[in-house]
Specification:
By secondary structure, the protein is of the alpha+beta class. It has helices at residues 24-31, 87-94, 104-117, 123-130, 140-155; strands at 2-9, 12-19, 50-53, 56-59, 72-74. The structure holds FE2/S2 (inorganic) cluster (FES) (2 copies).
């Protein structure tokens, strides 16, 4: 059923006429051109499609757009502010924490959510918190080092 959906996307108000059952992933990628949100498994398993909804990580392939009315959505395109990369984005670059980059937006947004919830997260907590975001290139060790580095920067 076509509905009017109002929400905030990357710091701007949005108003869409859209089928409320349509998955947020496809609204972002196909309707709004925000291709930083990746399609991996489509089943909630890989984490490639992770976005922030009210500062918490969600898998956009599992969220219907009708569920985001009035909410604040951030995709990887909206993490940079005032022309400055977020500390997590900088740390991923500095630690070379990617190979193909396909998992990277989801990794960064999941890590953001984790560090908002647990700014003092231990290595074990970071490992557990990132365990369900998959990297087919095997960059996990560098990803964890980048998140630890960004956590120190974010605490400062
Ligand atoms: S594409 Fe959504 S979790 Fe894999
Ligand atoms: S860098 Fe290729 S999937 Fe993670």
């Amino acid at each position: 059923m076509i509905e009017t959906i109002e929400f905030t996307l990357n710091h701007k108000s949005q108003r869409l006429e859209v089928d409320g059952e349509r998955k947020l992933l496809w609204v972002l990628r196909s309707d709004m051109g925000l291709t930083g949100t990746k399609y991996g498994c489509g089943k909630g398993i890989c984490g490639a499609c992770t976005v922030l909804i009210n500062q918490r990580a969600f898998r956009s392939c599992q969220v219907s757009v009708g569920e985001i009315k009035g909410k604040n959505i951030i995709t990887i395109e909206g993490l940079r502010q005032n022309g400055q990369l977020h500390p997590l984005q900088k740390a991923f670059i500095e630690h070379n924490a990617l190979q193909c980059g396909f998992c990277t937006p989801g990794m960064i947004l999941n890590a953001y959510s984790l560090l908002i919830e647990k700014p003092q997260a231990t290595e074990a907590e970071i490992l557990t918190g990132m365990n369900d975001n998959l990297c087919r290139c095997g960059a996990h060790q560098r990803i964890i080092r980048a998140i630890q580095s960004a956590a120190r920067e974010m605490r400062r």
